[in-house]
Amino acid sequence: MRVGQWVAGTACLVLSSTGVFAEGKPLPPPASSGQPVMELTIDKRDGKIACDPAELRLPADTNAELRVVNRADQPVTLTIDGQFEKGLVQHVDGDQGHSASEKGYTIKLNGKATLKFRTMAAGERPYACTGVNSQSDPFVGKYVLVPPAG
To answer: If you write DSSP's letter for every residue of the chain in order, what string do you get?
Structure first.
């Protein structure tokens, strides 16, 4: 009897999960066929978290890959307003965890992570690297999305 209940429960869970995925809106094709790769290094300089490069520049509405390396002395949360929400994240791998706010990813101490996502529309917005032990003093850089080349 227990096995039957487990199978029935699992079947219900799978069917309900499938329904959720089917209702999700798939992303339209990207504006560019390329998949740029950018590296972001997190360090600590003069006692403060610092990210390099200070300006992340990528083509808008394009599948992109961000490789993050944390060399700081603490876990650091990377946030980009709106970028890690609304189904734009395609794949995440490595020494990371989705932050409690679901607006960023926390990269573990001495960790490496790869984030694959669809970039948003062209524009400029801030991005931040916030150390778990220095939340009142985040590093703030620029996230610049430029129109993709032809």
So the answer is: -HHHHHHHHHHHHHHHHHHHHHHSPPPPPPS-S---EEEEEEEEETTEEEEESSEEEEETTSEEEEEEEE-SSS-EEEEETTTTSTT-EEEEEESEEE-TTSSEEEEPTT-EEEEEEE--SSEEEEEEEEETT-TTS-EEEEEEEEPPP-
- Model confidence over 9-47: pLDDT tens digits? 433 333 333 333 334 567 777 776 778 999 999 999 999
Measured from the Cβ of residue 70, the count of other Cβ atoms closer than 10 Å reads 28
Tokens of 144: 């610049």
**Dist. CA 35–CA 52, nearest whole Å:** 20
Q: Which of 105, 149, 112, 147 is nearest to 127 (CA)?
A: 105
Q: Are 114 and 92 in contact (CB under 8 A)?
A: yes
Question: Cα–Cα distance between 125 and 57 in angstroms, integer?
Answer: 11
Could you identify the residue written with the tokens 């694959």?
116
This model's pTM is above 0.90: no
